[in-house]
Amino acid sequence: MPRYALRIEYDGRPFAGWQRQAEHPSVQGALEAAVARISPGAGAVFGAGRTDAGVHAAGQVAHLDLPRAWDPFRLSEALNWHLKPDPVAVTGAVEVPEAFHARFDAVERRYRFRLVARRAPLTEDRGFAWRVNHPLDLEAMRAAAAHLVGRHDFTTFRSSICQAPSPVRTLDAVGIEELDYPAGREIRFHLRARSFLHNQVRSIVGTLERVGTGAWPPGRVAEALAARDRSACGPVCPPDGLSLIEVRYPAPLFERP
Question: What positions does the entry give for substrate binding (predicted)?
Fold first, then answer.
């Protein structure tokens, strides 16, 4: 059976996350329903990352096997037709070797988190950014984030229900930039790693926000990391601003988004 990789974009708000669930809508479930309409008897859709409820994606990658060969462009068009009205879109499709696996072959995942600091509520970006009503100190947050880069035991920064066999991960980079935003400032966090733990990004951003307000000194983040204790973590921020931007492989599958 030919195997295809898909690049997928979605608004995570209507879904209980990526992973298929019996009683709740999921991105995986929506894709598999669309696949069943164009190719009855096709297998499951396997994603590169299990995004949580409310988390978005601009560059999720998945693979699936189909009983017959498809032109990749026609495949993406057919899936997008049957995905309507769900806020899920296939933005790329390519045939890949039978041994390819969207999750296990990935060498890097890139997440972006959008935070808006302003007094007024969000309207256009509601559900796509986390609003805080106070200014943040970028340099303090950057100093704190530097303690997290590298290979560490991230027990403090993962969910208590995380199922990963080891809390050790290598965080390749945490970039923080500030942009103009109407009546406030937008702060974007860019995180890169081969893999992430459950709630790791949201735990990190929520903790860095405490540093930005001045409630935590930057050095307290290093102490929290060393504690290897979930109770030492700052608050876990909401999923609204989080998006899986890109998944990378040893050889590029798609044109860069």
Answer: 111
Is the domain 3-105 a CATH 3.30.70.580 member? yes
Q: Report the alpha-carbon distance of residue 238 to residue 176 in Å, rounded.
A: 18
Is the entire prediction scored with pTM above 0.85? yes
Catalytic site residues?
52
Q: Per the annotation, where are the binding residues?
A: 111
| Backbone φ and ψ of 152, nearest 5° | -145, 165
User: What burial letters (b/e) apply to 123-146, b meaning 16+ CB within 10 Å?
Assistant: eebeebbbbbeeebeeebbbbbbe
Residue 250 preceded by cis peptide, ω within 30: no
**Size of the chain in residues:** 257
Contact call for residues 227 and 157 (beta carbons, < 8 A): no
Question: Averaged over 117-135, what is the pLDDT?
Answer: 97
Domain ranges of the chain: 3-105, 108-245
Average pLDDT over residues 148-169: 95
